[in-house]
Amino acid sequence: MTLTNAAPPYVKSEFTVSSMMHSMLAALLALLVIPVAHYGLRPLVAAGASVLTALLCRILFRLFRGKGGSVSEASVLVTGLMVPMLLPLNTPLWLPCTASAFAVLVALEPFGGFGRNPFNPAAAGVAFVSLCWPKRVFSYFDPSQPASFPAFGAGVFHVAQSPAEILKQGFKPEILPLDMLWGNFPGPLGSTLILVIGACGLLLFLTGAGKAETTLCFLGAAALIAAAFPRILCSPLTSVKYEIMSGSLLFCSVFMVTDPVTSPRTFPGRCLYGAFAGAMTMAFRWFGAYEQGACFALLVANAAAPVIDSAVFRLRGWEGAAA
Amino acid sequence: MPCGIKLEPAKELSLKQPIATLPAPKTLPVPKMFAPLRRKKAGTAAILNAARTAGIVDELDGKPLEEKLMWFAAAETRVLIAVCFDEDPMTSAEQAVLRESASRIAAGLELAVRACGASVGKIAAANQKEVQRVQKDCSGTMFLTAGGRYPALVLLRRALSETGRKAGFLGGQACLALSDAADRGLAQSETVVTVAGDGARRWKNCRARLGTPIGEVLSAGEPLPETALAVVGASVNGRSVTDLSGPVTATTRCVLAMKRPPRRTVLPCIGCGRCQRACPRGILPWMILQQMESGSPDPFRLFNVERCVRCEACSVVCPSQINLAAAVARAEKFKEGKCNP
Amino acid sequence: MKKNRLLLRGAVQIFLNGMLFRNPVLVGALGMYPIAAAAWNLKNAAALSVLFLALSLPSSLVLCLLGMLVPRWFRPALVLLVSAAFYVPAGRLADLLIPGSVSALGMVAGLMICNSILFSRAEEYAPEHVAVAVAADSLGCSAGFALVAFLAALVRSVWLGKISLPFAAGFPAGRAADLPFAGFLLLGFLAAFLQWGNRLRARHHAERIRRRMP
Question: Please, which residues have CB within 8 angstroms of residue B172's CB and are 6 or more apart in sequence?
Fold first, then answer.
């Protein structure tokens, strides 16, 4: 019986970063099920290519810095999987790969890797790609017309305007809000399946991978602004329904705003941050150049997160909630 | 928001059997005996004298019982609480002692109450089931339950201090020893230790003589040959030992045998805030870590570090498996000015 | 003689610091806006550099002469006045050397009057140092600014359509490389690169000193 020395604690909790990342991966993979059922292997190939690129970029960066190529966290996989959810299915394969590469090489690794990044890498990747190739990122295929997507190579489809684009032009989308729940309208790959996103959100909140207050304040602020300043001529409730269900707003609110690394550390801070991000998204939708502004708004809110934390501490007198 | 953490208790196995008495090693002297007290007429001084002669040491903090009682008397403590539960998930020694000799603990508590001029004494048990189990043995005593969260004792102290009642805490085994000293004139010579851990074949509570080598207590649990770690104290915040010849003291509550030392891949802090909720003393371990890692910590921002009780709840709950308790300890030293960051 | 040689060596050190080791744009994070917003092709970069040199050298020398004579609170205003006074000749010079460049720069050319490098150097450094040092510093900062401007313009104009990916239909990043966000990202990476170089240099220096000690 040879004894060694080890530092306490000798008990481990089951909630670790890996378990958090696994719940997020499960939630994101659940979003892929319906597209795969409808359109074959293409969604899987796009997601797989993006994840692989993210992984390769991380390994290369680590080797370049001389830190060894071990991949001990699944956070890169989550980033790689989130990127194709915000892009249309009909994009060429290099588009999500470029976005993932940018996300890892510019927004994640130079700051010190996972846990030290001030900006959400997936949002940064998608924002970069939206600025460079806006036509490709915002042209969606029409799911009501026949369309086919081979696993590699270009697909055959009809182009249609997404509800977000129609709203931006000032018209009311043809599809009814209730029909939007089933996800059968033009939009980004993972952002149209409203019900599935809601279920994934519940899963994330219950497993503790994300905090509910950020999402609720985000949606609340966006809903308030949509009701108070509707972009189209309709009742406030209809405006709220259209705004929340179109574009990547719901996906952002459930998956990206709740990222604990980039959000503030205090409870009132998180509520403020969620509300700020929601307000900025609506501002981008009103005054921005593109039809969807959730990723840009999220980056702005990430920049404001430390300031929000400092403000909360200053107001509370630096002693924490109930010392 | 100090609420502690939920830990799965693993006490059933060691509580199944009654407390086993380990044979005393030959090298230890025979415990001395002295004249018992006459119960009804025993005054404060006589009880304190008995505590001193019996050499009773309180297992909660290692202080002599007489000293503690005098301190309680000087501080005009109103309530005395006998702690008969273990906050550590694998230890069950105090609970076993309560099950075995509840009436004697109640008697000792009553003596202690008389000795320090408090108005009431209560026994704190682990949960309502334990209370119901022993209530018939000591009908006159009032009971308290500890919470289900770790660290239960610290949280109980906090809850009582928030209600404003001045409460003093004594160990259950100290009360038992006091009652034995007063009634039978015995000096404190034994303590109950839990032997557990995944490297021990049998988990049990053992009554061992003070001064027994730890190795003998450990072998009562039949440790497996592939045991790599021996932990003394508690499963969460004990300390590991390689020299098994050290003696058992009154404060030793638990000896664990573990097959594998804990392996941790440490990741950066993700800012989830669980450590803040876990800390029972109101420290923000994530902020302490941030300050210490920055290289030039601001002492003003290291709040409450001097209040840390080393319960290690923050390190247990951290998803990135950072050793937050060590960071808080470093911050404490830095704040006192003892060392550079 | 000896004093002149020391002065010369000091001046060369100041120049090198301004140009490379303590580059005002990459290490001082000053004057980033003109580069991020306007230095996306080589013509613009050249015009910016000429403007900067023609504004910064005379302004710094004038401030070196007059700086101590005016009260402290007036110095910022004096810098701006002097700089604005020299703007017209500087603009004419830039137009002479690179025809059409000043109007192509638009608003950014006028904003060079209050360029933060120029401003901070003229306001703090110039009044309190000798003319040789001030001239060397101004030349060094101009050289540093020009270096970064040309480097940024080179990368951004090459990126703009000369590279194509193998399995895609071309890689026209289009206007994206001209946008300020690309400029800022590029400046960030260049700054990281330069600071890495500085760290290596400092480590070599420390090694050399340690080797010389007994």
Answer: B82, B83, B84, B94, B97, B98, B105, B123
What do you get for the CA distance between the two ends of chain C, in Å? Answer: 34
CB-count burial class (<10 Å; 0-12, 13-18, 19+) for A317: exposed
| Domain range annotation of chain C | 2-160+171-212
Alpha-carbon distances, residue A297 vs A119, A130, A187, A222, B126 (angstroms): 11, 13, 19, 12, 51
CATH class of the domain whose range is B12-184? alpha beta
Q: How far is C120 from chain A (nearest CA, A)?
A: 27
Structure-token pair, residue C118 = 């120029």
Over 60: is that where the pLDDT of C135 sits? yes
B147 is written with which tokens? 């919470």
Q: What is the torsional sign of CA C112, C115, C118, C122?
A: positive
Cα gap A299→A259, rounded to integer Å: 12
CA distance C141 to chain A (A): 28
Peptide bond between residue B151 and the one before it cis (omega within 30 degrees of 0): yes
* DSSP secondary structure, A193-212, as one string: -HHHHHHHHHHHHHHTSS-H
- Per-residue confidence (pLDDT) for residue B17, from 0 to 100: 84
The whole-number average pLDDT for the span B48-63 is 88
- Contact status, residue B255 vs residue B195, Cβ threshold 8 Å: yes
**Quick count: other Cβ atoms within 10 Å of Cβ C212?**
7
**How many interface pairs between A and B have CB atoms less than 8 angstroms apart?**
120
φ, ψ of residue B88 to 5 degrees: the values are: -75, 140
- The answer to whether residue B322 neighbours chain A at the CB level (below 8 Å) is no
What is the pLDDT averaged over residues B177-198? Answer: 88
pLDDT tier at C166 (50, 70, 90 boundaries)?
very low
The answer for A242, left when phi > 0, alpha when psi is -120 to 50, beta otherwise, is alpha
Nearby residues of C109 by Cβ (< 8 Å), 6 or more positions away: C47, C51, C91, C94, C102
Neighbors of chain C by Cβ distance (3+ pairs < 8 Å): A
Record: contact A93-C192, CB cut-off 8 A: no
In angstroms, the CA A90 to CA C141 distance is 49
Average pLDDT over residues B212-216: 88
Helix axes A75-85, A94-102, angle to 10 degrees: 140
User: How crowded is the C-beta side of B299, counted as CA atoms within 13 Å?
Assistant: 11
So what's the pLDDT on residue B40?
A: 65
How do the domains of chain A map onto residue ranges? 21-316
Residues of B in contact with A260 (CB under 8 A): 270-273
Flag whether residue C174 sits within 8 Å of chain A, measured between CB atoms: yes
Q: Where are the alpha helices (DSSP H) in A92-172?
A: 94-102, 121-132, 134-137, 163-169
- Segment among A7-11, A54-58, A244-248 with least mean pLDDT: A7-11
**Amino acid C1: pLDDT:** 53
CA A149 to chain B, closest CA, distance in angstroms equals 39
Q: Is the Cβ of B4 closer than 8 Å to some Cβ of chain A? A: no
Contact B238/A at CB under 8 A: yes
Helix (H, G, I), strand (E, B) or coil at C99: coil
Does residue B270 have a pLDDT over 70? yes
Look up residue A101 and give its DSSP letter: H
Q: Over the Cα atoms of chain A, what is R_g?
A: 20
Q: What are phi and psi of B193, to 5 degrees?
A: -125, 135
Cα separation, B325 vs B331, in Å, equals 10
pTM for the structure as a whole? 0.87
**How is residue C181 written in tokens?**
């966000």
Match domain A21-316 to its CATH number in 1.20.140, 1.10.3430, 3.30.1490, 2.40.350: 1.10.3430
**A16 vs B286: CB contact, 8 Å cut-off?**
no
